Amino acid sequence: MLLEWMSNKAGNNAEGPDREKERAERMERMGLAEGDCYFTEEGYMVFTEQYHLKRGYCCQSGCRHCPYGFNKRKQPE
To answer: Which of 27, 39, 67, 77 is the most buried (most CB within 10 A)?
Structure first.
């Protein structure tokens, strides 16, 4: 199901269907659901707020979509 969603989402992606299939398979192996993450143009996987809330805790890594209010820049060193 996730692979089908990723394939439909790919549309006319310049990277091609093979790259999207690889990403969808990676998400399935990791147990991720639709909306848990997305990929940047550079190919990085970015977890969404939805994923962080499902995980249930802050990892204090300075995640882009951290719903727990952690800000790496404001932490004392």
So the answer is: 27
- CB 45, CB 37: distance < 8 Å: yes
Per-residue pLDDT in tens (0 to 9) along the chain, 77 residues:
454 444 445 444 456 889 889 999 999 999 999 999 999 999 899 999 999 999 999 999 999 999 999 887 776 66
- 27: buried, middle or exposed (CB in 10 Å: 19+, 13-18, 0-12)? buried
Q: How many CB atoms lie within 10 A of CB 30?
A: 10
**Domain-wise residue ranges, the chain:** 1-34, 37-77
Q: Which residues contact 48 (CB under 8 A, 6 or more apart)?
A: 35, 36, 37, 38, 65
- In this prediction the pTM is 0.67
